[in-house]
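sanity check this fold:
=====
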Amino acid sequence: MTGSKSGGLTITLPSDLEIVMTREFDAPRRLIFEAFTRPEHLRRWWGPRYLTLTVCEVDLRPGGAWRFVQRTPDGQEFGFRGVYQEIVPPVRLAYTFIFEPMPEHDAVVTVVLEERNGKTTLTETTRHKTRDGRDGHLNSGMEDGSTDSFNRLDELLATLA
């Protein structure tokens, strides 16, 4: 998986605990930051296309909580939650990430947005507590899900520009 590229998304494994995803978007970082932090935008892109985001709660402040629930076509629901640790608009966002069915595999996600000539490189680093947590995340279908999510984000950004 190290260095794999799918749909413009590059995934690398710089350590036994980290997953780094990188993708360039043809949009200013201000819009991408808004898409990551406003529920009305998150509902339109977060998660694979075949899932519905039924809950999208954001308390955007250090120490504030977030929670998302996705529903499958057959009605199953899966929750994700965390707490914002750092918010530096429109440059950086850090938060804890917990997949509710497996809370013991919590991680910290850091999103960094670097803009050059109207294009923005998004680098998302997920740091797990254990290699098993990282590997479980990798084997969960995350590459396909992240590729689809970021494709949806790209589509949303085109409507916001």
Observations:
- The beta strands are 4-6, 9-12, 18-25, 52-58, 65-71, 77-88, 92-99, 107-116, 119-128.
- The chain has one domain: 4-160.
